[in-house]
Amino acid sequence: MMTFSYPIPANEADFEEFCLILLSRHWDCSDLERYARRGQSQDGLDIIDLSGRHPLRAAQCKRYDPLLPITVTTILKEVERAKGFTPKIDRFVIMASSKDDKEAQKAVLQINRDHRQQGLFTVQLLLWREIERLLRKYPEVAREVYGDSVPGSLVSRWKANISQVSYLNLPRLSIRAGLQGIRLDTLPNVQFLHEMGWELNRVLVQTAEVIEKIRVEALPITELKRDVSTLVGATVSFSDLFRTKNGPKLYKAFQSRLFVPTGNYRLDPHIYKQDDPVKLVMPISPRWIVSDTAFGQFASGQQRFAGLCTIKHAEESVVIASPLVLGIPKGPWDDFF
Q: Does residue 63 contact residue 97 with C-beta atoms inside 8 Å?
């Protein structure tokens, strides 16, 4: 199964504009417009066809974390709101930057069965994987939206080049694997990975096997020099030298069994790489550090890490990313023995 890494637009307004451009091309309709302005009642619609032609088409746009599903409750609520629009619409599309979800799809199927009997509009659900398929179908749209930073031309399949794992964000990795039909059974019920003792070895072995199997299309860290505001949601790969900051707090948190991040990366433990004009920052949680040696790495001042992260926030020249896996890069002797 293929995965892709087109970054999700940075905010709701940008996502609506993105959906407008994509639907205008997909429906071959230059008369689509964003409906109403913020603060006005939108009757459940963000985009509408003003051509006056039949069928009357409209859309609702929902920006989500791509690893989270859209809820059935949200779908039912938006469909109900769209019923109140006058004149009656014929086709209603919900575009969401969320992952595929069978419960959401089953809900839309049942809605369309009921609507057929009631003479109401058809509902279509376009989730992020399908939206990315449309971007590949219409590369001119991808170029218009992303400019020179079109991920499809920049991303490459990540090859796991980690010799020794230092940090494993198991919940996030489990979701990534699950999206590709690969199950990660070893999700320990512990507060900190390091407290697992010898049992952690089994977790590391299985996780290493999963990392080798999953297909991850990632943006190389060198591409962060371009417009970073378009890269929220993108997966980034790296094998580089990072600076560490506030690392001693990590082991203290592990010893006290208490870790409460402030939300200010300058005060919280993190690693960072400054490559003008962009500073990549990855906050570190002691929950996912695997060993005493790894705790030492995050307190060493600087350390070379290889791995993956997902961009969560980008503002001006600072990019905040959530690390998925970090480790010591493979060297020339790793494959010798």
A: yes
DSSP string, 36-71: S-TTS--TT-SEEE-S-PSSPEEEEEE---TTSBPP
- Whole-number Å distance between alpha carbons of 50 and 30: 9
Residue 119, phi-psi category: left (phi > 0), alpha (psi -120 to 50), beta (remainder):
left
Are 305 and 166 in contact by the 8 Å Cβ rule? The answer is yes
The residue count of the chain comes to 337
Residue ranges in the chain assigned as alpha helix (H): 12-26, 72-83, 102-118, 128-137, 139-146, 151-154, 170-179, 199-213, 248-256, 292-297
| CA 203 – CA 223 distance, rounded (Å) | 33
Per residue of the chain (337 residues), give pLDDT as tens.
334 457 788 788 888 989 999 999 999 888 899 887 655 556 789 999 998 889 999 999 999 877 788 999 999 999 999 999 999 999 999 999 988 889 999 999 999 999 999 999 999 999 998 998 898 888 778 777 765 455 555 556 677 788 889 999 888 887 777 666 677 765 667 788 888 888 888 888 888 888 777 777 778 888 776 667 667 777 889 999 999 999 988 988 888 888 888 888 999 999 999 987 889 999 999 999 999 999 999 998 999 999 999 888 887 788 999 999 999 998 765 654 4
Phi, psi of 94 (to 5 degrees): -105, 115
- CA-nearest of 292, 255, 287 to 269 is 287
Here the tokens at position 215 are: 């297909």
